[in-house]
Specification:
Organism: Pyrenophora tritici-repentis
Distance between the termini: 78 Å
Radius of gyration: 29 Å
Largest sheet: 2 strands, antiparallel
Strand order of the largest sheet: 1-2
Keywords: Membrane, Transmembrane, Transmembrane helix
Structural class: alpha+beta
Helix content: 55-70%
Protein name: UBA-e1-C domain containing protein
Number of strands: 2
Number of helices: 1
Shape: rod-shaped
């Protein structure tokens, strides 16, 4: 088998710009992953707190007829 390799030689200024661009893109990707994980963790945490609070306490339902509060039912 014959392999051909091609090496692109860029001027130093261009290579520095490419390296900086790659670094910035990597930082954006890492930041995005961090934000996704943070959103999932916070969502699960808040959901858990609300779920525990709702299952522990008593819930009350209030019906309103014609703008007047008439009946409250507690379970």
């Amino acid at each position: 088998m014959v392999y051909f390799e091609q090496h692109v030689v860029l001027p130093p200024e261009t290579q520095e710009r490419v390296d900086k661009l790659i670094w910035i893109l990597g930082l954006i990707v890492i930041t995005g992953i961090f934000l996704v994980v943070l959103t999932i963790v916070l969502g699960l945490g808040i959901g858990y707190v609300i779920w525990k609070k709702g299952s522990r306490g008593k819930a009350s339902v209030t019906w309103q007829f014609d703008g007047q509060e008439e009946m409250t039912k507690t379970k």
